[in-house]
Task: structure prediction
Amino acid sequence: MSSTELQGLYQQVILDHARERHGFGLAAAADAQSHQLNPTCGDEITLQLHLDEVTGVITSLGWEGHGCAISQASASLLSDLVPGLPVAGLTERIDAFRVAMRSKGTIEPDEELLGDAVVLGGTSRYIARVKCAMLAWVAAEEAVLQLTER
Amino acid sequence: MSSTELQGLYQQVILDHARERHGFGLAAAADAQSHQLNPTCGDEITLQLHLDEVTGVITSLGWEGHGCAISQASASLLSDLVPGLPVAGLTERIDAFRVAMRSKGTIEPDEELLGDAVVLGGTSRYIARVKCAMLAWVAAEEAVLQLTER
Amino acid sequence: MTTTSLVDSLSPAEVDRLRLDFPVLGERVNGHPLVYLDSGATSQKPLSVLDAEREYYLHENAAVHRGAHTLAALATERFEDARTTVARFVGARDDEIVWTSNATEGINLVAYAMGNASLGRGGAAAARFALGEGDEIVVTEMEHHANLLPWQELAARTGATLRYIPLADDGTLRLDEAAAIIGSRTKVLAFTHVSNVLGTINPVAELVGLAHAVGALVLLDACQSAPHLSLDVVSLGVDFAVFSGHKMLAPTGIGVLYGRRELLNALPPFLTGGSMITTVTMQGAEYLPAPQRFEAGTQKVSQSIALGAAVDYLTAVGLGRIAAHEAELGRRLVEGLAAIDGVRVLGPGVGHERVGLASFDVAGIHSHDVGQFLDDRGIAVRVGHHCAQPLHRRFGVVSTTRASTYLYTTTDEVDEFLAGVAETVTFFGAHA
Amino acid sequence: MTTTSLVDSLSPAEVDRLRLDFPVLGERVNGHPLVYLDSGATSQKPLSVLDAEREYYLHENAAVHRGAHTLAALATERFEDARTTVARFVGARDDEIVWTSNATEGINLVAYAMGNASLGRGGAAAARFALGEGDEIVVTEMEHHANLLPWQELAARTGATLRYIPLADDGTLRLDEAAAIIGSRTKVLAFTHVSNVLGTINPVAELVGLAHAVGALVLLDACQSAPHLSLDVVSLGVDFAVFSGHKMLAPTGIGVLYGRRELLNALPPFLTGGSMITTVTMQGAEYLPAPQRFEAGTQKVSQSIALGAAVDYLTAVGLGRIAAHEAELGRRLVEGLAAIDGVRVLGPGVGHERVGLASFDVAGIHSHDVGQFLDDRGIAVRVGHHCAQPLHRRFGVVSTTRASTYLYTTTDEVDEFLAGVAETVTFFGAHA
Ligand SMILES: Cc1ncc(COP(=O)(O)O)c(C=O)c1O
Ligand SMILES: Cc1ncc(COP(=O)(O)O)c(C=O)c1O
Ligand code: FES
Ligand code: FES
Result:
């Protein structure tokens, strides 16, 4: 009964991630932490990055928050993507994700870079929902800034 | 070249009174005095009534002020009308004048009551100018109020 | 049950006829006919309103209250006629109606003018509006941000205290608490007539009674009532009331502040500028009486005229009948929603009075996902906090989905919406 | 002589073609074809502007920035696109453009926000906007009441002092005096770009230089410039600028405040309500960045879209060419008026730069009588003090008659007007 376009927005992977949220939970301390609020809906996220100081690699990403299926799945998918990335690698992925999200459906996200998170590509057709998909990534971006500014 | 309607508004009598303003000039003291401002144009008038305390008859009306031809002629015509009237007679004439002015051209002013001032009748067709014609009369009304409230 | 049940409602055939006046209702969205259930946010506009505004621009447009040329006189007449139309609509006098750009501005006007009085503007006549430490402003926990933030800011600027009347679990105001809160320190009581989230109609008489007993002023937020119920500001006894044209068939950019005449004339000005003065020097100014005193600068002329046309349209249909129609739709909405597993309706439940509006939470599904799913089949509802965060917090939710009706809403549309909600549950649940 | 003389003007044939877009110009008034010379008060509107607004209501109307349904998304896009159009038109960034209902509201916004800062709102970031005793606000003697009264009131509320730059007899600002007045106490300098009475174009660069040298903020009243000249707020270097849509082909009810980004984001809010917050509790609120921070409540959506369409129309014709056309008309006006016995033109005389606008006094004939006579032959001009009483007092008159042009004004119309003025003198003089 629902259109294929809607099925494109809410792919099975997204609904699964929205229900079983990977990386959910915050640690008492982290190498970087950011809190972001989506002003259009009032939803929010707190996101932490943990770093291997020696190798400069991000070991894990944790988060807590509430929001729509898109925002929750997006944070969950991000937390799958990050472990093992150097800081610059995360920045590269955030940039690639943003470009795809802002493309109004004209740019397919790059699977090489973004892995399973490419399933969020359909969101870019729904301007009002782009902020939902971006919420965790903006938080990650701010956290990265803290790491690089240290 | 000007339309007959405009000639109706600016009758010769009006133009004459506007130029040679009867009753112009204020006394050092008066039995009643009122100042009125026309907020739409910023023009104003100060008007005085002088009373014969014994007979209760208004002996004269003096005024000063500035404004358009209609307002100046109206004050001038009013000052011709008033001398010799009892206070109640002035009130009656003010009321009659107001009714005609508010009539949008549907009611001819009563010559019995208003004398030469009936030439102002054409003003009632020009809503924006009714305040001009009324200015002196409103001042007279307020002055009358002072007389009756004493 | 509702006070309007004695009045005939609109027949389905009549609603269908009315809908022809609203061409946008014939649009298709995502391949489906549009089902517009977001009139609580903003209503659609009938052709007569669009035409009134266009005709004005094609034949009469000029600056009002200025200049003596023919177009200016015509424009002024239309503009003031619209004021008369709106005044009659709410039982007020012409000079008690101030044009604003929306209800929000109307509330800010009163709050800022009181702030100005608190700083000594307006002299002795305005002293009754002055606030300071120890004075209290009372609102309710169900207010739209528009009727909360201006008072919070006024309190912050003057040192007054903001207090609020809490809500019972069923979404009604705690009148026992209201009686305890409203007291000799209360200077203003501001509350909404109809809640934009709960659909409840507040007991105006009781609240006005409490406020006036202690000499407090009452401002009524009539945003959700003026479009849907017949409103008489004098019999309600309020001192000020505000509403927005765009929620009652008029264009955006026009709203109304009603104020009792002697209050408006004692209140210091808010916005200052052209067309509201008698005399200006470089040192100071004398201000005109209301309503001009509050209408600085070039006014929303065509929008006022359009609001007049909107009021004519509403009056021709009949507010009593519109209210009856919407009460039926409201009942249908609540009964239908209550019957869907996992749906929780905020505010009065089945069998209690409400307008044609219902906000609800679907267990485990975010309101934006509900809204997105419905939009996919052409059903337009509103999602989020509806500019009432404290209210949502009170009910333990961040956001809800809201369906709201108007005179052009059909029962079929409500049914389609209900079917859509049921399928939403299946869609997001089916993948479990 | 004018800076625009290098640009081609509009040919008579072109003006005739443009006039077809403005049906109201084909109206007859008192049996004569309308000669509309009151564009300085409010302009007429082309069909493309009326159509843009109507199309919006017929296909896209919904509440913007709220809800996720399709119509709401479309409406939001149109609304923000219009902001981009207007931003480009004046050389600003999107987030530096705040919608207001008119220029008057824009100036009040800045004045009230500064008043709020003076009461401690907005915290440390807003301290630079705070005023108190010893601080000075500087305006000029030629300001429209809209750019005078808000500052008078702000001074009265905060204890600051209002000072003004006087005028020379030719209607230009006394820059020597300006240099003496603007000093370390000056917090704000507010002045008009083009005088609505004199038609003079003020030396923005010099005044901005004086103000910025002492750290004062500059607000430019661009009401009479934005519609007629090409405007670049960045190269002008002003901190704030305001203008009204209704004077530049758009409907009533919409205006613009430009503010430099970092200033807007540091300024405390003015109107508060919905759609301008991130978080609200019963105790306080967090406000969004500009422009949303200043756009409380339901916005003037269709009017913004119409202003976007108006700007598109102006841009298609070309501001440089419009300015050249109007400079020619202005010259013709002044030369023609100066040649009529008993007529005294205020402001710069024959041979000096002015826009297409002239105010004049006819010896012994009140401006309302002049206007009435002209209206009788279909010529619409403005009479009175044009919301600039101090300016009129400076020139020793209570009121004047003003003729003002726009892109659709023809030289024939100017000539008819001039003939009308000459006959006015005869008519009122002939009876002498
Ligand atoms: C120079 C100037 N400033 C301000 C204004 C006020 O504009 P508005 O009435 O549209 O707010 C006007 C027009 O009336 C004007 O000409
Ligand atoms: C109850 C209530 N009050 C105030 C408002 C604010 O109205 P506006 O945004 O038109 O100013 C609204 C609508 O948004 C409302 O529903
Ligand atoms: S709706 Fe809030 S994050 Fe998506
Ligand atoms: S125009 Fe001022 S009194 Fe007539």
